[in-house]
Write a structure and sequence with these properties.
Elements: H1 3-15, E1 27-33, H2 52-60, E2 62-68, H3 74-83, H4 111-117, E3 121-127, E4 155-159, E5 171-172, E6 175-176, E7 186-188, E8 218-219, E9 222-223, E10 227-229, H5 241-255, E11 261-266, H6 287-309, E12 316-322, H7 358-361, E13 365-368, E14 376-383, H8 387-394, H9 411-414, E15 425-428, E16 434-438, E17 441-444, E18 452-453, E19 458-459, E20 467-470, H10 486-502
Parallel strand pairs: 1-11, 1-12, 2-14, 3-4, 3-11
Antiparallel strand pairs: 2-13, 4-5, 5-6, 7-10, 8-9, 12-13, 15-16, 16-17, 17-20, 18-19
């Protein structure tokens, strides 16, 4: 380098014009599984099934043992992850119907909007389940907005809600993919539309029987929640969903390999209906649920192999987690219970999806960033609600006082440098009962309603009396010690009350 060139660079640095090349910003991929339990993958102790690609992430990165989704169900967990706000603060963020209006309004600070502001290409591929369109719901046959593109994503390819809910079509950016205008889509969650058969009236047409609910319009031999007619050319085939969305995710990586990118890859697996591709069907020995775990692992492997092929491995942060804990029979007869074969989806934890107990929100979390995150295991207390503030910090930003009110900068924890993590974690059960973990103590506030969801056979954690568990000695939450530690109950209940009444937890 000549003295003249060096002098010019120094001058430009002083003027703030010469910048570090954008490629030095790390890419970020968040792989978000659906209904995957703490004990469902082999790096978290599963012995009846092997998940080598997920295990590779664990071996090459940091495996967290006390990481939590913010809710024991899907819509609120996804809302909190993207907005940095507990979903229970906002009405209408329970499990959304397939025709729900957009739950995150344009102008809201979100994880993708923060990263887009930092110069990232931002994409979402897979399950959305956060509503689309204006108040009253989307126009399925026109421009479907607001949606992801209005809250910070530059590209989207969506399963609009869940695969067990209509409409059974993909939405790319603002339009249904492959829709024939002569065969418009109609959707209703109140009454039948059109004349298409339902599972309730024509069970003989089903290739997968329903066990509870899920008995309305039949698409691809499977009855769904909700009624749908039209859109025949646009309807998905369940067996192909994992391959389609993984292909779209890989295409996004290819298209943006020369610039920093953020990809939110929200898989359908292992949510119901579990209809894996023939490559995986029958391979686990545990029925469709086990086969769907193998398919999920394949999806992860495809992403990792794409990063290797594009020489992006070293400069990409890969996170892998789940939106809530496990459930077996969630509406279809698919041998999930009868073919467990000794597998324990929740590992040593009590409860599952929908529950205030640990298995409701304690989920796998793996983070790999070669050269920056040392491989190992972390017992730090982590919540997904902190992803927004943490990745804002990674890019030199900080949410304003009115933004992401519950998201704390936990970047040092995610990178393995802080072994303690959050002061406390709050979880939300399906019945809106809240829990709080601080140190070794787990407090569950008094709650109303049934103690067990009889349809899915999962303990919800509801009790009219406060519950307190010492997770260090009783990770299975078998012994309620609230009566023996009234002062701890008062302290934790006080923290929860303050967080709820203040309207924010980050000051």
């Amino acid at each position: 380098m000549t003295k003249k060139t060096l002098g010019l660079i120094i001058l430009l640095l002083g003027l703030g014009i010469y910048r570090t090349p954008a490629r030095q910003k790390p890419n970020i991929i968040l792989i978000y599984a659906d209904d995957l339990g703490y004990g469902d993958v082999s790096c978290y102790g599963a012995t009846k099934i092997k998940t080598p690609h997920i295990d590779r992430l664990a071996a090459e990165g940091l495996r967290f043992t006390r990481a939590h989704a913010s809710s024991a169900t899907c819509t609120p967990s996804r809302y909190s992850l993207l907005t940095g706000q507990y979903a229970w603060r906002k009405q209408g963020t329970g499990i959304a119907p397939g025709d729900a209006a957009a739950l995150i309004q344009p102008g809201t600070t979100t994880l993708p909007s923060v990263l887009r502001k930092a110069g990232y290409a931002t994409g979402v591929v897979g399950k959305w389940h956060l509503g689309l369109g204006p108040s009253g719901g989307p126009d399925w046959n026109g421009d479907i907005k607001p949606g992801p593109l209005e809250i910070g994503f530059s590209y989207s390819f969506l399963i609009p809600a869940t695969v067990d809910r209509v409409p059974c079509v993909y939405v790319e950016n603002h339009r249904i993919v492959g829709l024939d205008s002569a065969d418009p889509v109609q959707v209703s969650y109140q009454e039948p539309v059109g004349t298409e058969p339902t599972g309730r009236q024509h069970p003989q047409l089903l290739k997968m029987k329903f066990s509870h609910g899920h008995d309305q319009t039949i698409v691809n031999g499977i009855s769904r929640i909700g009624y749908m007619t039209g859109g025949k050319s646009a309807r998905w085939k369940d067996e192909d969903i994992a391959g389609v969305i993984t292909g779209k995710a890989k295409a996004f990586l290819e298209a943006h390999k020369a610039q920093p990118f953020f990809l939110y890859f929200a898989t359908h697996d292992i949510h119901v209906p579990r209809v894996p591709h023939s490559r995986f069907a029958g391979k686990s020995g545990m029925g469709p649920r086990g086969d769907a775990i193998l398919q999920l692992d394949w999806c992860v492997g495809e992403i990792l192999q794409t990063l290797d092929r594009l020489n992006l491995r070293e400069n990409t942060i890969v996170l892998f987690s789940s939106d809530n804990g496990p459930v077996l029979d969630d509406g279809y007869v698919d041998e999930a219970v009868t073919k467990l074969n000794g597998h324990t989806p929740a590992g040593p934890l009590r409860g599952g999806k929908y529950s205030a107990f640990e298995a409701g929100t304690r989920v796998p979390l793996l983070i790999r960033w070669p050269g920056r995150v040392a491989p190992g295991v972390s017992g730090a207390l982590v919540s997904q609600v902190d992803f927004l503030a943490s990745f804002a910090a990674l890019t030199g930003q900080q949410p304003g006082t009115q933004e992401a009110p519950d998201s704390f900068n936990q970047l040092e924890t995610l990178l393995g440098k802080n072994k303690q993590g959050r002061e406390y974690v709050i979880g939300q059960a399906f019945n809106n009962t809240l829990s709080l973990i601080r140190g070794d103590w787990k407090y569950i506030e008094p709650g109303k309603g049934p103690r067990v969801n009889q349809q899915v056979q999962i303990e919800l954690g509801s009790d009219p009396q406060p519950q307190l568990y010492n997770l260090k000695h009783d990770v299975g939450e078998k012994t309620n010690v609230a009566a023996a530690h009234p002062e701890v109950v008062r302290q934790l209940a006080g923290i929860l009350r303050k967080v709820r009444t203040d309207g924010r937890s980050r000051q």
